[in-house]
């Protein structure tokens, strides 16, 4: 009987030790999973586009950026590597393909979309240095982050990216402030290093509960001055309204306009949204393509968004109506309007 008791006692010791060891190993693996300081993400996209009011010959398209090819076309492949430490981190965001090249004219099919390091100086202060996407406007370069696949004129003719130093401050639970010193930039230079040697620009953003007032100034070295409002409101659990308005001026030449983005979620997998935009040029800005000073354009873009796993399919119908002739109809005659249809596929990983 004594021998049996001793054997059971030893078994109990081994059982308890095994439980502790298993718990320790599980906790260690869980901690390692939680850390994961390095992450890889990205997107790929492609589309088919055709004109409805004119022939596809000559690739006639709206004057805004991206999604302007006829037939089947590629967007871009976007690969983002980010490393997050306790207080510091870095992001390398590379893009390949036509959309990337249009964004900033990269070399050999590669474009450094973003490349920056940051330091969380305190709980409410963050410093970022390098190349980062612009804080101006409602839309961004990546199609995965936009509701509409084609882009607005307001987005297309503001800067896409900046190279410089910015400081973000969380002033309170609702208020935020961003201040930046950057290289001079415009729609053709996009913040690339040395765009205007010896000249710099200043940027600022004041945020309140998801509403942002943005400023850019470079002393008329390139873009000049731009003020921009971006925001939106959840009007219900399924209905969202986005807003954007901007004014840009460089010694009397520039643009102004506004856009609304109502979006309705009809189910967990399908949403439908409209972008209504008015965009007007000051002087001979040359964005719309009429060849006439002080031209304007109204654009209505209706987009559906269907998601299955990581794939999003977006059918889109767009109408551009200009104040002066900018397009051609099916008979080859000058026209003030162009209607087009596209369907895009975007995969995020």
From TrEMBL:
- Please tell me whether the keyword Signal is annotated for this protein: yes
Say which domain of life the source belongs to: Bacteria
Q: Which Pfam families match?
A: BBP2
Write out the entry's keywords from A to Z.
Signal
Q: Which SUPFAM superfamilies match?
A: Porins
Which residues belong to the signal peptide in this entry?
A: 1-27
Q: What is this protein called?
A: Putative beta-barrel porin-2, OmpL-like. bbp2
Organism field: Cellulophaga tyrosinoxydans
């Amino acid at each position: 009987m004594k021998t049996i008791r001793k054997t059971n006692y030893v078994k109990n010791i081994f059982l308890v030790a095994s439980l502790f060891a298993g718990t320790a190993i599980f906790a260690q693996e869980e901690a390692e999973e939680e850390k994961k300081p390095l992450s890889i993400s990205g997107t790929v996209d492609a589309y088919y586009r055709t004109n409805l009011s004119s022939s596809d010959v000559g690739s006639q398209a709206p004057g805004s950026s991206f999604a302007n090819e006829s037939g089947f076309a590629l967007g871009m492949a976007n690969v983002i590597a980010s490393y997050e430490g306790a207080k510091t981190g870095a992001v390398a965001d590379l893009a390949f393909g036509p959309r990337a090249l249009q964004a900033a004219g990269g070399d050999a099919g590669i474009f450094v979309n973003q490349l920056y390091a940051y330091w969380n100086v305190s709980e409410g202060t963050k410093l970022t240095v390098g190349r980062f996407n612009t804080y101006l406007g409602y839309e961004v370069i990546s199609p995965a982050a936009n509701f509409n696949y084609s882009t607005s004129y307001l987005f297309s003719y503001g800067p896409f990216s900046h190279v410089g130093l910015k400081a973000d401050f969380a002033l309170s639970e609702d208020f935020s402030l961003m201040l930046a010193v950057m290289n001079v930039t415009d729609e053709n230079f996009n913040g690339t290093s040395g765009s205007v040697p010896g000249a710099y620009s200043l940027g600022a953003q004041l945020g309140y509960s998801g509403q942002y007032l943005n400023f850019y100034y470079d002393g008329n070295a390139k873009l000049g001055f731009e003020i921009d409002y971006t925001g939106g409101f959840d009007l219900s659990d399924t209905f969202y309204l986005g807003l954007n308005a901007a004014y840009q001026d460089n010694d009397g030449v520039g643009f102004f306009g506004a856009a609304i983005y109502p979006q309705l979620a009809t189910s967990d997998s399908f949403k439908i949204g409209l972008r209504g935009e008015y965009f007007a040029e000051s002087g001979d800005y040359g964005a719309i393509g009429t060849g006439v000073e002080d031209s304007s354009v109204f654009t209505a873009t209706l987009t559906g968004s269907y998601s299955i796993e990581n794939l999003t399919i977006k059918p889109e119908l767009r109408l551009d109506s200009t104040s002066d002739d900018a397009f051609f109809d099916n008979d080859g005659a000058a026209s003030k309007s162009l209607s087009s249809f596209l369907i895009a596929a975007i995969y995020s990983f």
